[in-house]
Amino acid sequence: MPRLVEDEKEAKPGKEKAAQPKTRKKGVDKWKKKVWYTLLAPEEFERKEIGETIAEKPEMLTGRTILVTGRDLANQPKKQHIRIKFRVVSVSGSKAHTEAYGHIIKDDFMRRVVRRRSSKVMSVNNYTTKDGKGIKLKLIVVTDRKASGKQKASIKKKVEELAKKVISEFDSKKIIDELVFGNFPNKLYPGLKKIVPIKRIEATNSEITAAK
Question: What range defines the domain where residue 190 resides?
């Protein structure tokens, strides 16, 4: 289980007078005052334990983030290349509750997907969820054969049009689950295959922003 630990800065010793013996002042060991907290995924991810973190006070945990692979989160080995972003929003006892605010796919995975005799079309755009939150989303469409410049432009325009519609059907608490584990690519595919045969559609990066 991942553990998040804050780095402690070592205090620099002060200058001693030559005539005085060197003495060490007794100080409070800050580590003894700190407590370990269990990080819990939100309800849409079954409140699974996703890691541990340490803090001196519960309020210091708010806003702290952690990345969890899809494999660790949902026991799906095929999702090892995906990392879901979680952020602490509240603390109850020794439990720190989080929210999912985005995800990222490793670049080396996408490099393996794009082969010769295919084209890659990338789109980075801002969308709005059903509950009015903004989400920045990066989409990559890989064609089954080389696409012309005109076809690439059509794919980019169409994928953004389709993504806007699909994302508007989910609230911010459900959209990350849909992007990572749901049928999001399948909902875009029918509209894109009419332009050129499609090999793969991936939402490679997302991040929920403030309400619109």
Answer: 107-211
